Amino acid sequence: MENRDITKPIRNIEPWWQRFAAGLNEFYHAPYRQTMARAARDEEDFFMLLMFAESLGIDNPASFYTLELQPLFLENFHEWHTRMGMDRCPFDHVGCC
């Protein structure tokens, strides 16, 4: 049985061109990662406003369709209302704060 030296680094199995392509991919996408994350967060904030608009007193023509989604997004509601600048939960029936 052959003894292996465990201090030697394990050679990377990926070919050099795959590592190079992954590096290029990271080089081109890294500057836009923060912008895309901010855009996704803004889109999620708008969706949460659309879902809970009727409960907040804002007329919402799509409330019939979003009403059944509210229980699924209720666990994210505390994060959202604090990010929107509401220190306390605006609902009496939801005790998130």
UniProtKB/TrEMBL annotation:
A Pfam family it matches: DUF7990
InterPro entries for this protein: CC_star_Cory, DUF7990
Protein name: DNA helicase
Organism: Psychrobacter luti
